[in-house]
Design a protein that fits this description.
It contains six helices and no strands. Helix 1 runs antiparallel to helix 2 and helix 4 runs antiparallel to helix 5. The longest helix is centred in the C-terminal third of the chain and has 57 residues. The radius of gyration is 44 Å and the shape is rod-shaped. The protein starts with a helix and ends with a helix. The relative contact order is 0.10.
Length: 237
């Protein structure tokens, strides 16, 4: 208020000076113009200065404990959602890679089962080497799948805790957003798990088929051996 009164006093003084200058009878045009420019410049500067002093443009932020807690809760929900997004993407990729590896193993075992009894020992050994290598790759992909799944489960729990904290602190919108992110992530992972479950089912079916073919082949070999035995060895003494 003191600055405003001082500015008003200066403005009143300048207005009085302008009236005195303009009421002068001497036709001093050049000097009058010079004084007029100085006067207008001073009035404009004073008006702006007085306005800045009179109107407070800076707003004081809400720094209460409740406000700070809500901001912190919003930051936690944002970071936990990022963690969930990254682990979900990694888990889906791991499930997809595991499913592809299993399907490759299924194709190899089907090929071997269909070729039982038709391969030379060298060919059979070569196929088994490929199958063993593919089984090792399936195990590696499964370990990676389980490792990312553990991280993903931790991310879901973290988001649930963050959502609860946000809700209790008054950041309802942040809590709703995290719950939505959890539901989307769970849906995506469940869809990816269907691929791995289908691959595991086909792998089990292929193993059963392989065992049956090997059993049939063993019976066939025994039958052939019995047919090759001379009748003299089959007669009782």
């Amino acid at each position: 208020m003191a600055a405003l009164r001082k500015g008003a006093a200066y403005l009143s003084f300048l207005r009085s000076s302008s009236r005195i200058l303009f009421s002068s009878r001497k036709p001093v045009v050049h000097k009058l113009g010079k004084w007029t420019n100085i006067l207008y410049t001073g009035i404009a500067s004073l008006t702006v200065g007085a306005g800045l002093c009179a109107v407070p443009f800076t707003q004081v932020e809400d720094l209460s404990h409740d406000s700070l807690i809500r901001r912190a809760a919003s930051l936690v929900t944002g970071s936990s959602s990022t963690f969930l997004s990254q682990t979900t993407l990694a888990l889906i990729d791991a499930i997809t890679d595991y499913s592809k590896a299993v399907h490759t193993l299924v194709a190899l075992q089907k090929r071997y089962a269909a070729s039982i009894g038709k391969l030379t020992p060298a060919e059979e050994d070569s196929i088994w080497q490929v199958i063993i290598g593919q089984r090792a790759q399936v195990n590696d992909k499964l370990d990676e799948y389980k490792r990312f799944e553990s991280s993903w489960v931790s991310a879901v729990k973290l988001c649930e805790t963050a959502a609860e904290a946000a809700y209790t602190s008054g950041a309802e919108q942040a809590s709703i957003t995290v719950h939505t992110n959890i539901q989307v992530a769970q849906f995506q992972v469940e869809e990816a798990r269907k691929l791995s479950q289908d691959a595991d089912k086909k792998l089990a079916e292929t193993k059963v088929m392989e065992i049956e073919r090997m059993a049939q082949h063993a019976v066939s070999l025994e039958s052939n051996d019995e047919e090759d035995v001379p009748d003299a060895y089959l007669r009782e003494d």
